[in-house]
Every structure is written in structure tokens, then in C-alpha cells.
Amino acid sequence: MIVDKIEEFCLKILEKIGLKSLASWYRQHQEGMRYLVFGALTTLVNILTYAIFSAIFLKGISNDSLRVNISEIIAFIVGVIFAYVTNKLYVFDSKTNNYKELAKEIMSFFSCRIFTEIISILMMNVAVWFSINDILMKVVSNIVVIILNFVFSKIWIFKGNKNENTKRIES
User: Fold this and answer.
1) Nearby residues of 166 by Cβ (< 8 Å), 6 or more positions away
2) Are 5 and 166 in contact (CB under 8 A)?
3) Could you give the CA distance from residue 84 to residue 82 in angstroms, rounded to a whole number?
4) Cα separation, 117 vs 136, whole angstroms
5) Which of 62, 100, 132, 142 has a CA-to-CA distance to 25 between 20 and 30 Å?
6) How many domains, the chain?
């Protein structure tokens, strides 16, 4: 798998430049580290999708609120699809045996992401209601959402769906 090869290449570089303990630590925490890497990529996909739709495809909409909300919904959907695929294939090595299992996994993933998005929105509203700095609350809400998404993915969505045949990085 290309991700495994890129990952191993980067870890070999770390070892060559004297950061063998960091490479070893990464290997011990590979699933969590991959989750963070693909989470960062998901954030980038979300932002780029939002920017593209807001500035290019929907720029003709004169109502700014409508343009922003449509762009945000599209960006959320594209980001969640990207996150699902990368989490399934590269983070949790999930395999499904039939369409029913796949549909259940997808619905669970989307449901959890919608739930954590609602939590984020509620936290941001708490910031407004109690005059808490919104940027600080955005950082806190993102940390809460990232942790919840990982926990939901690990213990509920992708549990028991590990691919036994997938070769992982070995130290």
C-alpha cells in the first residue's frame, strides 16, 4: 500500500537523522498518528472545498448567508466522505463482508460526525452566550470533537472490522 511505503520512507529518514526514538514512538502509536495525519488532511480538504464552492461555484449567489451555508454543507459532506475513506482504509484497516455491513459502517460514521458537529456548534454557542473568546472555544471544541471522533471510530464504528491480512509497519 502506498501509504505504508511513504510512512516507512519517512520513518527511515527519521532514523537516519538520529531520531530513532521518535520513529519507534510513532510505530508504537501508529493508529493514533495516522488518525492525526489524515485528520489534518481532512481539515485541508474541508477548507479547500469550502473556499472553492464559496469563491468560484457559488460566487453568483448574492445572499452571503446562503452562499456560506451551502458551501459549508458541501465542505462538511466532502470532508466526512474523505475522512470515512481514509479512516476505513488507512487508519483502522476496516473490512466489510457485504453491502449491509458497509452501509451500517457508513451510517454509523456519518451519524457520529453529525453528532460531534452538533456538539461543536453547541460549544460555540456557549461561547457566545457567556462571552467566552470564540477562537479559544473553537480550539477547545475542535479538541473535543477530534477525541470523540477517534473514540467513536475506534470503539464503535470500525471495531472488529480489522483486516487480519494487512501488513503494518514493524520495528
Assistant:
1) 1, 93
2) no
3) 5
4) 17
5) 142
6) 1
The domain of 147 spans 97-162
* Backbone angles phi and psi of 164, in degrees to 5: -65, -25
Is residue 55 assigned to a domain?
no
Cell of 138: 473553537
Q: What 3-state class would DSSP assign to 2?
A: helix
Exposure string of 74-93, with b = 16+ CB inside 10 Å and e = fewer, is bbbebbbebbbebbbbbbbb
Determine the pLDDT at residue 116: 95
User: Are the beta carbons of 147 and 123 closer than 8 angstroms?
Assistant: no
- Specify the pLDDT at position 163: 56
Q: Is residue 118 part of a domain?
A: yes
C-alpha cell at 104: 451500517
How much is the pLDDT for 167?
Answer: 46
Distances (CA, A) of 37 to 30, 58, 87: 10, 30, 11
pLDDT averaged per 10 residues in sequence order, the chain, 171 residues: 93 97 96 95 93 89 86 93 97 94 96 95 90 87 92 89 51 44
